[in-house]
Write a structure and sequence with these properties.
The structure holds three protein chains of three kinds. Helices cover 37% and strands 15% of the residues of chain A. The longest helix of chain B has 27 residues. Chain B is 27% helix and 22% strand. Chain B is α+β, with helices and mostly antiparallel strands. Chain C is built from eleven helices and 14 strands. Chain C starts with a strand and ends with a helix. Classes of the chains: A alpha+beta, B alpha+beta, C alpha+beta. The interface between A and B is large, with 57 and 57 residues. Chain C: Keywords: FAD, Flavoprotein, Oxidoreductase.
Chain lengths: 164, 789, 266
């Protein structure tokens, strides 16, 4: 067993865990944060994307012990004060989800995309940047629209972005 | 139309939990004391099992129990079933081999279930599964669809030549006569590639046994929990229905693959009692590739006969359908009654004859995948029609228009009675949206850049709203295909609607609430849709075949009518008027010609307090149920147009435009309907260009992960141009036809017609990967400079 | 995943001493190793995480080279202003590895230590004449990459960084495996002060290699036209469901011409 201390959604957590525990297992099974999903075994589907020190990563390909001393944000930590993050709101407004399973990873990826590429995103950029997120329901059409709109709204509501 | 009523693009009620990570999928459920299951799977496609030694594994840390097919047999647990009986031409019933949930004596495909290990943790279960030794006698594998019949190796003894059925539909003599007088015959050999459904949520199950109640609960990723309970009770024999609860909570996509009753959930619920612990299993992606029922896998020879002017006279089709190693729950219906009756497409074809040979192979079971039979049929007729038009030097759009069914009702020679539609209207609209007129210019521009551009059409039709129970019963279905609903109005006017439909992405919590809000004039927020739990909903047939709108909502509409009728009685007493004088409009019951009225909620309260009528006059309460059995299939139809560009240097295909114009009848929520179209198109494009499950000659699945099986990604697709035409469905009270499968049905033919148009020849099969397209481009007449337009 | 012991050393020296343990394996970004362990195809007894070893992260620019610390992520390389300016082809290559989330974890050190035949970095190392630094020595790319998943690394040797000489011009063109998105064919073209190099990844059955015929043709004239109609022999190239050897050979020609064109346009 290995000791691990990290911050998850702003709260300090510590645990003594089997080193083979993946971050996604730790989040889902130990912390019961089940919004982060597992959709494949090969780091491709992106259902498990969370932020590690603010950067999007695949929680199925990182050991929890590797995150010792670091800060993790999951989909559950994105909304602040009961109010949706602009990207979450945009996914609802533009019907960017159907079954909802890939959605948390999509939203976390989208927020990271805005951090890196700014608030004005063209369709080509968004589609390229979704390389690591697979959706089987939407054909991506409305996800692309949602991300473009969410990115713009994040510029209009900077305080929420800072809160993340 | 109100802001939340029928026809409004209401934002989805269910989204709040999904976008905040609060969705509750099966793997999110953890039961007290739960143990974890890992299945030991066959590494061989075909082998007899001489012996299984579990002794070493049983002593491994954390092991709670190890169960094999012998234990199943000892407990007299029944095998998995196929619920649709198909008879061969000679009248003999299909040859269904036994399908135990854990192998008994033989394994028949890679991934077949040999044993289950239940342990404290999943890692321990996996460790122990590796310690089980199985003595296999490996047999040759039957893999290829076209060569399975009479392959020499026998998959099931009941089918000595591996043929499950030789089925047919239509009139052979009429067809032969028509071919004899045809001026032109177009012939095609078609492979409809095998697909893996791949909903992003893998299947999962948690089985639980309550000793005090002597009752089981199964949490499972199902599109139809009641059907699962019925099969687990009546055929597999887990427990009577009143002692078995099946819960399908949030389900992360299905596309058909979660209709079926699989080995894993059967084992989890059975084993829960056996080991005295809740048992949880969650598929990983590789297991999903190996064991989720696959889709399609047809090899077809088809011929179309025409007169001098290009009028279609007859269609003749012979298909070999790979059913895999076992008959999955609805597998036999897919290449038969869900396939051949759609071969007429949108066309007036006087004579059709179709033969289908269903075969066993040592591959995963094949069953319904989005569209189920109808994409295969559409691909046959739409490729044939396109090629016929080319061979006759006729414009493909005009050729189609000439042959369209134009008057309704129209009886095809293959069962279906089309009840309404306007195919030319969809064609016209699609041509306009796709800027068909501008295509020659765009093609010249591509040629200047060294690219090949093509355009392709697909006039699809599907039979949805599955299905009239009596009709499907006469065709071999084991169940009726009605739907049930219950509308429970609470004393304060809030409403629960219990439905047998199941939502796994379709947005029922919103669209069904829109119907209720619209009909009863209550705010949409006060309507809750309850589904997916056999303890809550009395019965239901579930969601597949684009049936939830046409059948599921029709049942709700019927129950609403009963609620209104009862409300009218209550209002009559409360308003001291005659029942015949009570009108219901915009959420108010009023006395005709007066200003006396009560809001719907006030009438609900009156129904429950029951102060204004006696028990002899009226039963208190306001709760009504209904079963709705459709009177016909519904026939969504439309025109999809694909325009694409090939880079002949690399074989890379870029979809430049994709236009879909669909007639789904009346639409409850256009936003959701368009979303269904988008998703379907992506899967159809995936089939045409990217996806193909491939087994090697030993029966090993070569494409067993996303590393080898190409899923459509965002950058592979354009934004789609979607339009609609509306001819209300005459066969159900809401005029709904269904929209869930259209894209997957229409798109493959549209893409392949565009691709072959670009190439200038027909010699390419799905999936048209870059390698295949590059090869095909070498033989393109369009690549000679003089051929450039 | 099988059980293992886990260590997070805080110095290179400590990492080296831990590496002497039985079945010990280093993990950098872990984006090859962890998926392999999940599938139970790798079973290290001890995992040594380099995440807390100092001085392995960073990008340094000197007049003639760019030096990248072993634990620097692909994302950091792709976004680095110095790399973009000095060797834009290298930034572009890094931006084509995996996807954004993978690039936030995957590292250059992990990539070159693993030497996957479909990885991108080996093509850049060989084309640019990179020097691979370890805790023990410096190796040229030619010395370092020895075959399929094989390198010249010895027991107890840890990659600490890679130094890329700045070329006159360079470009990388990648044809992705349609499913895995690894390189089906990746061609790196570098016009260096001393010579021209064309390297190919993803295609060779023995890992990354130099396409010398193309180099010779480009030495005469650095233009895509010099490679017109050229492709290497298909023998010795990989063949799988996504691409047979002929197609790979053809794609090498196409990608090389496109890379030369892109480099020439810089």
């Amino acid at each position: 067993m290995s000791a691990v201390s990290l911050t998850v959604n702003g709260k300090a957590v510590t645990a003594d865990i089997d080193p083979r525990t993946l971050l996604v297992q730790y989040l889902r099974e130990n912390l019961r944060l089940t919004g982060t999903h597992v959709g494949c075994d090969t780091s491709q589907c992106g259902a498990c994307v969370v932020h590690l020190d603010g950067e999007a990563i695949k929680a199925c390909t990182v050991l929890a012990v590797q995150c010792d001393g670091r800060s993790v944000t999951t989909i559950e930590g994105l909304a602040s004060g009961g109010e949706l993050h602009p990207m979450q709101a945009a996914f609802r407004e533009h019907h960017g989800l159907q079954c909802g399973y890939c959605t948390p990873g999509m939203i976390m990826t989208a927020v990271d995309l805005v951090r890196r590429k700014g608030n004005s995103l063209d369709e080509h950029t968004i589609r390229d940047e979704l390389e690591g997120n697979i959706c089987r329901c939407t054909g991506y059409h409305n996800i692309v629209k949602a991300i473009a709109a969410g990115a713009e709204n994040m510029a209009a509501e900077p305080q929420k972005v800072a809160a993340e | 139309m109100t802001a939340t009523g029928i026809g409004a693009s209401v934002r989805r009620k269910e989204d709040q939990r999904f976008i905040t990570g609060k969705g509750r999928y099966v793997d999110d459920y953890n039961r007290p004391g739960q143990a974890h299951a890992s299945f030991l799977r066959s590494p061989h496609a075909h082998a007899t099992i001489r012996a299984i030694d579990t002794s070493a594994a049983a002593g491994m840390p954390g092991v709670v129990g190890i169960l094999t097919g012998e234990d199943l047999a000892a407990d007299k647990v029944g095998g998995l079933i196929c619920g649709w009986m198909i008879h061969s031409k000679d009248g003999t019933p299909m040859k269904a081999g036994a399908h135990p949930a854990l192998a008994q004596g033989k394994v028949r495909y890679v991934g077949d279930h040999v044993a289950v290990v239940i342990a404290e943790t999943l890692a321990q279960a996996k460790d122990a599964a590796e310690a089980i030794t199985v003595d296999y006698d490996v047999l040759p594998a039957v893999v290829e669809t076209a060569k399975a019949a009479g392959a020499g190796t026998v998959v099931h003894d009941v089918a000595p030549d591996n043929t499950v059925f030789n089925w047919h539909l239509g009139n052979q003599a009429d067809v032969e006569a028509a071919f004899a007088r045809a001026a032109h015959v177009t012939t095609l050999d078609i492979v409809n590639n095998r697909l893996v459904p791949n909903p992003i949520e893998p299947r999962a199950a948690v089985g639980e046994y309550d000793e005090a109640e002597e009752a089981f609960t199964l949490y499972t990723t199902s599109q139809n929990p009641h059907v699962a309970r019925l099969v687990l009770s009546a055929f597999i024999g887990i427990a009577p229905e009143n002692k078995l609860r099946v819960v399908a909570p949030d389900v992360g996509g299905g596309f058909g693959s979660k209709i079926f009753i699989y080995a894993e959930e059967t084992v989890c619920v059975w084993a829960a009692k056996k080991v005295g612990r809740p048992v949880k299993w969650t598929s990983d992606r590789t297991e999903a590739f190996l064991c989720d029922a696959h889709g399609r896998d047809h090899v077809t020879h088809a011929e179309l006969a025409m007169d001098e002017g290009g009028k279609i006279l007859a269609l003749k089709v012979h298909t070999i359908a790979n059913l895999g190693a076992y008959l999955s729950t609805f597998s036999s219906s897919v290449p038969t009654y869900l396939y051949a009756p759609l071969l007429s497409g949108q066309y007036n074809i006087p004579a059709i004859y179709c033969e289908v040979d269903g075969v066993y192979t040592n591959t995963a079971p094949v069953d319904a995948y989005r569209g189920a039979g109808r994409p295969e049929a559409t691909f046959v007729i739409e490729r044939l029609v396109e090629v016929a038009a080319r061979e006759l030097n006729q414009d493909p759009a005009k050729f189609r228009r000439k042959n369209y069914v134009k008057s309704f009702p129209h009886q095809t020679p293959v069962i279906m009675m089309y009840d309404g539609g306007d195919y030319s209207a969809s064609l016209d609209k699609a041509l306009e949206i796709a800027d068909h007129k501008g295509f020659p210019r765009r093609r010249r521009e591509s040629a200047r850049n060294g690219k090949l551009r093509g355009i392709g059409f697909s006039s699809y039709i599907e039979a949805c709203g599955i299905a009239p129970s009596q009709a499907v019963g006469s065709l071999g279905a084991g169940v009726g295909l009605w739907e049930s609903a219950e509308v429970r109005v609470n004393p304060t006017g809030s409403i629960e609607v219990l439905t047998g439909s199941h939502s796994h992405g379709q947005g029922h919590e919103t669209t069904f609430a829109q119907l209720v809000s619209d009909r009863l004039g209550v705010p949409i927020e006060s309507v809750t849709i309850v589904h997916g739990d056999t303890d809550k909903v009395q019965f239901g047939m579930g969601t597949y075949g684009s049936r939830s709108g046409a059948v599921g909502m029709s049942a709700i509409a019927k129950a609403i009518d009963k609620v209104v009728a009862k409300g009218r009685k209550v209002a009559a007493y409360a308003l001291e008027a005659g029942e015949d004088d009570i009108e219901f409009k915009d959420g108010r019951f009023s006395v005709a010609g007066t200003d006396k009225s009560l809001a719907f909620g006030e009438v609900a309260l009156q129904a429950y307090v029951a102060h204004k009528f006696s028990g002899a006059q009226l039963e208190p309460g306001l709760k009504e149920g209904a079963f709705y059995d459709p009177t016909n299939f519904t026939f969504p139809a439309g025109m999809h147009i694909c325009e694409l560009e090939i880079d002949p240097d690399t074989g890379v295909v870029t979809i430049e435009r994709f236009t879909a114009v669909d007639d789904f009848g009346n639409v409850i929520n256009p936003m959701i309907v368009e979303g269904q179209v988008h998703g379907g198109i992506a899967q159809g494009v995936g089939q045409a260009l990217f996806e193909g499950a491939l087994y090697d000659s030993d029966g090993q699945l070569v494409t067993a992960s996303f590393m080898d099986y190409r899923m459509p990604r965002a950058a592979d697709l354009p934004s789609f141009e979607v339009g609609m035409t509306v001819t209300p469905c005459p066969s159900n009270p809401l005029g709904i036809k269904g929209c869930g499968e259209a894209g997957a049905i229409a798109a493959p033919a549209a893409v392949m017609n565009a691709l072959t148009d670009a190439l200038g020849h027909e010699n390419i099969a799905m999936p048209a990967t870059p390698l295949a397209v590059w090869r095909a481009a070498q033989g393109s007449p369009h690549l000679r400079p003089e051929a450039a337009e | 995943m099988y059980a293992f012991a886990y260590h997070q050393p805080t110095s290179l020296k400590e990492a080296v001493s831990l590496l002497a343990g039985e079945d010990a394996k280093l993990v950098a970004g872990g984006h090859t190793l962890i998926p392999t362990m999940k599938q139970r195809l790798a079973a290290p007894g001890t995992l040594i995480d380099l995440g807390k070893v100092p001085d392995l992260v960073g990008i340094e620019r000197s007049p003639r080279s760019i030096t990248i610390g072993a634990m620097t992520t692909h994302g950091a390389v792709a976004d680095s202003a110095d790399v973009k300016e000095a060797i834009p082809a290298l930034a572009e290559l890094a931006a084509l590895i995996g996807d954004p989330a993978v690039r936030h974890r995957g590292t250059i050190g992990g990539s070159v230590a693993n030497n996957d035949p479909a990885a991108d970095y080996p093509a850049a190392c060989l084309a640019l004449g990179a020097t691979i630094s370890t805790n023990k020595r410096k190796l040229t790319a030619e010395e370092y990459f020895t075959g399929l998943f094989e390198t010249a690394l010895e027991e107890g040797e840890i990659v600490t960084g890679v130094s890329f000489p700045i070329p006159h011009k360079a470009a990388y063109e990648k044809f992705r495996n349609p499913a895995s998105r690894y390189a089906l064919v990746g061609v790196f073209v570098a016009k260096r002060p001393s010579d021209i190099r064309v390297t190919v990844t993803g295609a060779g059955s023995n890992g990354v290699f130099r396409w010398t015929e193309a180099e010779e043709a480009l030495a005469k004239r650095f233009s895509a036209k010099s490679l017109e109609g050229m492709s290497p022999s298909a023998s010795g190239l990989n063949s799988d469901i996504h691409a047979d050897a002929d197609y790979r050979a053809h794609l090498i020609g196409v990608m090389a011409r496109r890379a030369v064109q892109k480099a020439a346009d810089r």
